Amino acid sequence: MQSLLGKYGEVDIEKAIETLRFICDSSHIDIDKINAYSDRGKLYISEIGMPFNDTSSKAEKLAKYLIVPIGYNNKFNGRPLCASFMKDNNNTWTGVYIDTLKGLLNRFVEYADFTTTDVTTLVGGIQDDYNCLGYGYNDIVSNNNNSLLDADIFNISVAKEIEQVENTVIPDRIKLERGDKFIQTLYDRLLVKEKWNRDNYRYLADYINCLLRKISIDIDNNTLNGYIHSKDKQALCFNSGLIDKYMNDIYILIKDNTLSLLDSKSTLIDLGFNRECITNMPKPIRFWKDKSELIFDGALENFDLDNVNSLNHIIVERRYRLPKVYQDMKTDVVCSKIKMGITNALKMAEHNHYYCAPMYNFKRGNIQYLLPVYMDNSLEDTPEVVAIVGKDKGIYTVKTLLSLEDAYINARMICKPDNNWLTV
Fold first, then answer.
1. Coil, helix or strand at residue 58
2. Measured between alpha carbons, how far is 265 from 278 in angstroms, rounded to an integer?
3. Which residues contact 245 (CB under 8 A, 6 or more apart)?
4. What is the mean pLDDT of residues 220-238?
């Protein structure tokens, strides 16, 4: 198959073409045209949501997101479309997502790990009808309206400040892999084994990684939640939310970017922890502000099943998450099955408030919900796929689709799922 934007990175061409056919203003997709037109602009975005004002090799190295123009317009609103790439853990650009420039930036805000509010300035500064023509933020804005906006540009000097590593413990810099020796040691100590050893301890590794991520967010927000620091901030101890075979809370210690199980409080004294903190050891980490958030209150009347952006995301962009039998079905057939599955889940939730499981959305910092989507299976069996549902301005919409296994891991962050359908 002919390369589509392959000069930028790895592209799922079939998914990209399907998205283009759905959203662009032309029935014929000219790949050569897209490849040539993409040379007319480039915008790099950092991991924390800051735009680069250049397209140098240094900017490329430090960037997390890349946007280029493609030469087609959105058939629904007539605005120019662009393609975006994201850098994976191997520093490889992968893609693509297709949307307007502002649409892609808004997507980054919603789904990416932006930790700065300055990205609001970026999105606000880019107008709906802007095209990604130019090289860097100021150049793009200038080419679209001949004026420069007073945006906080992410330049190399800022990048150097971010690259400076402090001695303070930053938990989410630690990434545990399945089969990690620490994870196996932790598993051996558990009172209730659950399904933690499944897939070479993947579930347990993902669980601890999520705790580390939440702690980092709470540290940034100066929120004390389930962890304590040593006086010099070079060591941290947190409650894992798990119980050992002696009915003790299992505490995990972080020192020099290494995890270990805490066996004795005397270890904390040796590391310079405050005695008062040691006397009142932290409770399990909370992902909610009020327990009422854990109960799903959605109903068909406050649910937007016809949201075009949501449908495009779950049916076109996330089609690969559906079982294979649905991946080649026509869009209208798949859409009908998903809508009916969600409608049935809402009906079941009316009779059982615990039917839909809560989960924590790291990117939005709030509780969302997992709804089983039965497309053909009986409600007495397991669902084919699971929908993540969130509320915006009082209206629920589908955010994305997950496999049953990934849904289980997301739900387990809050508590051990006891829903009949959420089993793996």
1. helix
2. 7
3. 189, 190, 191
4. 91
Q: Report whether pLDDT(156) > 90.
A: no
Q: What is the CA radius of gyration of the chain?
A: 23
Give 372's strand partners.
386
Arithmetic mean of pLDDT, 76-82: 89
Contact 237, 260 (CB under 8 A): no
DSSP secondary structure letters along 112-172: S----THHHHHHHHS-TT----EESHHHHHHHHHS---------HHHHHHHHPPPSS--GG
Q: Which of 330, 306, 303 is nearest to 316 (CA)?
A: 330
Beta bridge partners of 137: none
C-alpha to C-alpha distance for 137 and 50, rounded to whole angstroms: 10
Residue 325 and residue 309 in contact, taking contact as beta carbons nearer than 8 Å = no
> What does DSSP assign to residue 283?
P
Give the span between the Cα atoms of 129 and 74, in whole angstroms.
10
**Shortest CA distance to 53 belongs to which of 160, 126, 133, 136?**
136
**Model confidence band, residue 302 (pLDDT cutoffs 50, 70, 90):** very high
Beta bridge partners of 41: 134
Cβ–Cβ under 8 Å, residues 208 and 176:
yes
With 0-12 CB in 10 A as exposed, 13-18 as middle and 19+ as buried, what is 190? Answer: middle
pLDDT band at 123 (very low <50, low <70, confident <90, very high): low
The pTM score is 0.64
Q: Is 423 exposed, middle or buried (0-12, 13-18, 19+ CB in 10 A)?
A: exposed
Predicted pLDDT of residue 387: 96
**Percent of the residues in the chain that have a pLDDT greater than 70, as a whole number:** 88
Tokens (6 digits) for 292: 């009422």
* 113-122 per-residue burial string, b: 16 or more CB within 10 A, e: under 16: ebeeebbebb
Q: In angstroms, rounded to a whole number, what is the distance separating the alpha carbons of residues 321 and 375?
A: 13
Highest mean pLDDT among 223-227, 231-235, 336-340: 336-340
Which one, of 126, 17, 24, lies nearest residue 79 by Cα?
24
Cα–Cα distance for residue pair 335/319, rounded to 1 Å: 11
To 10 degrees, what angle do helices 198-220 and 181-189 make?
100
